[in-house]
C-alpha cells in the first residue's frame, strides 16, 4: 500500500512486516494476488509468509473522509511471531522531518531531523534465512537492535502544520507507534506501525486514514527547460507539465533579466494544445526566436523559472564535473584529494581473494566454480589492487561499468581531441589531486586507470571477470571513505582475528573476486583494451603495447575457444543503470530484486528468460572488438575483414540504435559503397525512430522500468551526434540537443538538472557514497524519474536515498562526457558556419 497526496508520494510499503524498521534485505511477504472491487471501492491483496505458515489479506476500502485499512489473517498468528509481526506504513522523511505531529489530540511533538531514539536489542527469528536480518556475523556477535517508538497512541496526526501533508490515522485495534527507520539505516523512513494481536484473524489490524484534502486542489504547473540554457541558433522548447484540471492561460512569456535585476519581456507566444500522458497533460512552448545572448526566465501563469543563459557557449561546461569530479572520486585503489578535502584514501589495496562458491550472494553476485586456473576459492590473487572505479553509490568494481568507462572516455578523447587537464594522477604513489594539471589529459589518465585493472585480470587470471565485490553485508553497506572498508592488509588465515604481521592480517575483509565470465564481458574487454592502446600511444607506449598485445591474444583465444554463456545468465545489451554510450553490449548477468518504494529491495528474484530478440542482439557480439582493433592497428587483418563481414548485419534498422550506429566509425576501413548502404539503413531507422519518440511529450525514450531512464537518453544524444556527423542531411543535430536538454531539466516531475551541480537548479542530494551526509558528488548523473504504477512519475528532489531514481553510476558519467562534448561541438559547428 502506498499513498499519493497533493501530488507527492508521502507513504509506501504498507504491509505486514516482522520488524519495526525493516532494512533492505529483511523478509517481505509473498504477493499471491490482487483484486479491485470497483463496485464497493475496495482493493485487496493476498499475501503470505510461507516460512511461518502465515496467510492474510490486506484490504483498503473507501469510507467517508478517507479509507479503512484491514489485515485479515486466515488463522491466528503463530506464537513465535507474537510481538514481532505488525502492519507498517512508511512516511517520507524529507516531507515530515521538522514538521509537527499530535498523538491522541493532545501530546505534541516534532519529527526529528536526526535520528536519536533509544535502541532495543532484538534477536532475529531462528528459522528465517540468515541474510534477512544479519549483516553476516557482525550482528550475530553484537546483537540485532531496533529503535523504540518516539510516539505511541490510538490516534496520530502527521504534518499538523503542513496543509499539503496533514493526515490522521486512528487504530481500532493495537496502538499506533511511530518509529524512525533512520536509526538502523540512513535510507530509512518514518514508520507508523501496529502490532498484530495474538488470537485475532478477521480485523486483526483496523486503521482509519483521514487525509486533510484541500478542496479543488490542482498541482501547480511545472515548466521543464534546460537549466544551463540554450545555444542561440537552435530550437528552444519548454514543456509544461499540467494537472488535467488546471485551467491556465494559452500563452507563455520569456523575460530577460536585466543588469539592474529587473525583468523585461522579450517574447510571448502560444502554448500547444495539451496532450495527455500518464497522470498529467503536456503543452509545449516554443521560444526559438529568442536568440540574443543574455539571461532569461520563462513565465507561465504564476510560475517563473530560475534564470538561464542563451549563449553560444551554453554547453561548454556541462561535462567537466563528470570527468574531473565524479569519475575522479570513483577511482579505486588510489587516494583522491581536492584542495583541503580528502574525498577518500587509497582504498582496497588488499584486493583480492577468489570468491568461494556461495550460491547467489546478496545483490545478485554469483561465483560459478570453486577454482579458476591455479586459484581456488579463498586464495589471494596478487596484482589485482590496481585501477578501476567504484560502480555507483557502492564500492563494487562492476565489470560492465569498467569496460564502458574505458570505451566512452577513449571515444571522447579521440573524437573531440579532449586535452582537458585538471587532475594530477600518480598511479605509483596511488595519489590523485583535483585542480592540479600535470600535463596529461584527464581522459588519457582515466583510460589508463581502467586499462591497468583489465590487464591485471588477463595477466593474473587469464580472462575478463564478473567483477569485485564485498564479502559480507556489513562491509557492503559501508558509507563514507572507501579506504576505511578494509584494513589494507592481505588476509592470512594463519593469523588471529586481530593479529597483524607486516602487510598481512587475520581480518577476512579483503574483497572477493568473482571470476565468472561470459562472452560479452570477454569481447568488450578486448574492445576496451584495444581502445586504450590507441589512446595511450605517445603517453605510455609500454602500456599501450601491453594493451594491444593482450587484446590480440584474447581475440585469438576467443576465436579458437569461445567463452560459453554461464548457466542462469544471458548476455544482452547493458541494463538500465549501466549506460553504455552505445559502445558496450554487456549484461551484468545478474538480477537484483525489484525495488520497494522506500529505496530498499525485495528478496532476489529468479533470473529472467532472455529478452525478446536476444538472438538478434547477440549477433555479431565481436563487432565492437573488431572495430577497436581495426582502428588501433590501422586496418590490419583479420579485424578489418571481420568488420566487412559483420557490417550488413549491424546496420539493420533493428540494430541501429544498439550497436549499428558505431558503423560510422568503421566507414574509413570499408569499401566505397558501404556509406551508401548505411545511408539507406539510416533512412529507415529515422522514420521508425520518430514514431517511437513521439510517444512521449519529451521526444526521448521513456523511462518505464524499475530504474530511471536517463542512460538511454544520454545514449541517444551520442548516437544521434555520430549519425548526424555522417549523414547531416538525414539526421538533424536537434536530436542530440533535445536529449541533452532533457538531462539538463526538460523532463517530467520537475525541471531539476539530472547532472549534480550542473545548471541553475540541479540535483544536490544523490545516492552516492556520501549520501549519509545528504550530499552529492559533482557531475554525478542520476537515473531520473520512474513510474509509480500505474501512472505517477516520480523523481524526488530533496531526498537522495531512492537508488532507482538517484544512484549515479560511473559509466553514466563517462557517457555524459561524450554527450556533453557532442552538444558543445554542435553549438560550435553553428558558430563556424556563422563566421
What's the gyration radius in Å? 28 Å
Gap between N and C termini:
60 Å
The oligomerization state is single chain
Shape field: globular
Q: Strand share of the residues?
A: 15-25%
Tell me the strand order in the biggest sheet: 3-4-5-6-17-14-13-8-9
Low-confidence stretches: 132-136, 570-615
Strand tally is 41
Characterize the biggest β-sheet.
9 strands, antiparallel
Report the total helices: 17
Descriptive overview:
- Strand 27 and strand 28 form a beta hairpin.
- The model is unreliable at 132-136 and 570-615 (pLDDT under 50).
- Strands 3-4-5-6-17-14-13-8-9 form a nine-stranded antiparallel β-sheet, with no helix packed on it.
- It has 17 helices and 41 strands.
- The longest helix has 25 residues, at 810-834.
- The protein is 25% helix and 22% strand.
- It is of the alpha+beta class and 835 residues long.
- It is globular.
Helix and strand topology:
Layout: E1 3-5, E2 8-17, E3 30-37, E4 42-49, E5 54-63, E6 66-73, E7 86-91, H1 93-96, E8 100-103, E9 107-110, E10 119-121, H2 137-142, E11 145-147, E12 151-153, E13 155-158, E14 167-171, E15 176-180, E16 190-195, E17 205-211, E18 222-224, E19 237-242, E20 251-257, E21 263-270, E22 275-277, E23 280-286, E24 294-300, E25 303-304, E26 308-310, H3 320-329, E27 335-338, E28 341-344, E29 353-354, E30 371-372, E31 375-376, E32 397-398, H4 399-416, E33 423-426, E34 431-434, H5 442-460, E35 467-469, H6 473-476, E36 490-491, E37 500-501, E38 504-505, E39 512-514, H7 519-536, H8 541-560, H9 614-618, H10 623-632, H11 639-650, H12 653-656, H13 674-693, H14 710-726, H15 734-743, E40 786-788, E41 792-794, H16 803-806, H17 810-834
Amino acid at each position: 500500500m502506498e499513498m499519493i497526496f497533493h501530488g507527492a508520494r508521502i507513504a509506501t510499503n504498507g504491509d505486514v512486516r516482522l520488524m519495526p524498521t525493516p532494512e533492505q534485505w529483511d523478509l517481505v511477504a509473498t504477493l499471491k494476488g490482487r483484486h479491485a472491487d470497483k463496485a464497493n471501492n475496495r482493493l485487496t491483496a493476498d499475501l503470505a509468509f510461507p516460512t511461518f505458515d502465515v496467510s492474510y489479506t490486506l484490504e483498503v476500502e473507501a469510507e467517508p473522509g478517507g479509507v479503512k485499512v484491514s489485515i485479515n489473517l486466515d488463522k491466528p498468528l503463530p506464537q513465535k511471531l507474537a510481538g514481532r509481526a505488525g502492519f507498517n506504513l512508511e512516511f517520507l522523511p524529507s516531507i515530515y522531518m521538522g514538521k509537527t505531529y499530535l498523538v491522541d489530540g493532545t501530546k505534541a511533538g516534532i519529527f526529528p531531523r536526526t535520528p536519536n531514539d533509544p535502541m532495543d536489542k532484538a534477536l532475529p527469528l531462528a528459522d528465517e534465512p540468515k541474510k534477512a536480518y544479519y549483516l553476516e556475523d557482525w550482528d550475530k556477535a553484537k546483537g540485532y537492535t531496533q529503535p523504540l517508538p518516539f510516539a505511541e497512541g490510538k490516534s496520530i496526526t502527521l504534518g499538523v502544520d503542513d496543509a499539503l501533508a496533514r493526515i490522521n490515522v486512528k487504530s481500532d485495534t493495537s496502538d499506533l507507534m511511530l518509529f524512525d527507520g533512520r536509526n538502523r539505516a540512513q535510507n530509512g523512513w518514518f514508520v507508523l506501525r501496529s502490532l498484530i494481536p495474538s488470537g485475532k484473524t478477521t480485523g486483526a489490524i483496523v486503521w482509519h486514514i483521514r487525509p486533510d484534502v484541500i478542496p479543488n486542489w490542482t498541482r501547480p504547473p511545472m515548466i521543464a527547460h534546460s537549466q544551463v540554457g540554450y545555444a542561440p541558433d537552435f530550437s528552444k522548447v519548454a514543456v509544461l507539465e499540467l494537472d488535467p484540471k488546471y485551467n491556465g492561460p494559452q500563452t507563455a512569456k520569456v523575460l530577460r533579466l536585466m543588469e539592474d535585476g529587473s525583468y523585461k519581456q522579450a517574447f510571448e507566444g502560444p502554448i500547444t494544445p495539451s496532450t495527455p500522458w500518464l497522470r498529467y497533460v503536456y503543452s509545449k512552448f516554443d521560444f526559438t526566436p529568442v536568440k540574443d545572448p543574455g539571461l532569461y526566465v520563462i513565465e507561465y501563469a504564476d510560475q517563473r523559472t530560475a534564470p538561464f543563459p542563451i549563449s553560444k557557449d551554453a554547453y561548454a561546461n556541462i561535462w567537466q564535473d563528470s570527468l574531473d569530479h565524479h569519475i575522479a572520486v570513483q577511482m579505486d585503489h588510489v587516494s583522491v584529494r581536492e584542495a583541503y578535502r580528502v574525498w577518500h584514501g587509497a582504498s582496497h589495496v588488499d584486493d583480492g581473494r577468489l570468491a568461494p562458491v556461495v550460491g547467489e550472494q546478496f545483490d545478485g553476485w554469483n561465483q560459478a566454480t570453486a577454482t579458476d586456473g591455479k586459484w581456488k576459492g579463498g586464495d589471494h590473487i596478487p596484482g589485482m589492487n590496481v585501477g578501476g572505479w567504484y560502480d555507483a553509490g557502492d564500492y563494487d568494481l562492476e565489470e560492465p561499468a569498467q569496460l564502458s568507462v574505458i570505451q566512452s572516455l577513449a571515444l571522447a578523447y579521440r573524437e573531440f581531441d579532449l586535452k582537458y587537464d585538471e587532475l594530477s594522477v600518480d598511479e605509483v604513489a596511488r595519489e590523485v589531486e583535483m585542480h592540479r594539471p600535470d600535463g596529461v589529459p584527464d581522459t588519457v589518465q582515466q583510460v589508463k586507470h581502467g586499462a591497468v585493472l583489465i590487464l591485471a585480470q588477463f595477466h593474473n587470471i587469464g580472462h575478463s571477470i564478473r567483477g569485485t565485490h564485498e564479502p559480507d553485508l556489513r562491509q557492503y553497506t559501508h558509507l563514507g571513505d572507501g579506504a576505511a572498508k578494509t584494513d589494507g592488509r592481505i588476509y592470512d588465515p594463519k593469523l588471529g582475528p586481530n593479529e597483524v604481521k607486516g602487510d598481512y592480517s587475520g581480518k577476512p575483509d579483503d574483497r572477493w573476486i568473482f571470476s565468472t565470465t561470459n562472452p560479452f564481458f570477454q569481447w568488450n574487454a578486448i574492445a576496451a583494451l584495444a581502445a586504450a592502446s590507441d589512446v595511450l600511444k605517445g603517453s605510455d607506449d609500454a602500456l599501450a603495447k601491453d594493451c594491444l598485445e593482450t587484446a590480440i591474444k584474447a581475440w585469438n583465444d576467443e576465436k579458437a575457444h569461445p567463452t560459453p554463456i554461464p548457466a542462469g545468465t544471458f548476455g544482452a545489451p547493458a541494463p538500465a543503470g549501466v549506460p553504455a554510450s552505445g559502445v558496450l553490449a554487456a549484461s551484468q548477468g545478474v538480477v537484483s530484486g525489484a525495488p520497494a518504494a522506500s529505496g530498499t529491495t525485495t528478496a532476489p528474484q529468479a533470473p529472467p528468460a532472455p529478452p525478446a530478440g536476444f538472438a538478434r542482439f547477440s549477433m555479431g557480439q565481436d563487432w565492437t572488438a573488431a572495430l577497436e582493433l581495426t582502428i588501433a592497428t590501422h586496418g590490419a587483418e583479420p579485424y578489418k575483414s571481420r568488420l566487412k563481414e559483420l557490417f550488413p548485419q549491424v546496420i539493420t534498422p533493428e540494430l541501429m540504435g544498439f550497436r549499428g550506429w558505431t558503423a560510422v566509425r568503421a566507414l574509413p576501413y570499408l569499401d566505397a559503397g558501404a556509406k551508401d548502404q548505411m545511408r539507406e539503413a539510416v533512412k529507415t531507422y529515422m522514420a521508425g525512430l520518430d514514431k517511437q519518440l513521439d510517444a512521449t511529450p519529451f521526444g526521448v525514450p521513456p523511462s518505464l522500468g524499475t530504474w530511471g531512464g536517463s542512460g538511454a537518453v544520454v545514449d541517444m544524444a551520442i548516437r544521434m551526434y555520430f549519425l548526424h556527423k555522417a549523414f547531416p542531411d538525414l539526421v538533424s543535430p536537434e536530436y542530440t540537443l533535445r536529449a541533452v536538454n532533457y538531462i539538463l531539466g526538460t523532463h517530467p516531475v520537475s525541471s531539476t538538472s539530472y547532472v549534480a551541480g550542473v545548471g541553475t537548479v540541479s540535483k544536490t542530494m544523490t545516492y552516492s557514497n556520501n549520501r549519509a551526509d545528504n550530499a552529492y558528488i559533482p557531475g554525478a548523473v542520476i537515473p531520473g524519474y520512474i513510474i509509480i504504477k500505474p501512472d505517477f512519475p516520480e523523481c524526488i528532489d530533496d531526498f537522495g536515498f531512492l537508488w532507482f531514481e538517484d544512484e549515479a553510476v560511473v559509466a553514466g558519467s563517462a557517457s555524459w562526457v561524450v554527450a556533453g562534448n557532442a552538444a558543445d561541438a554542435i553549438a560550435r559547428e553553428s558558430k563556424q558556419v556563422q563566421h
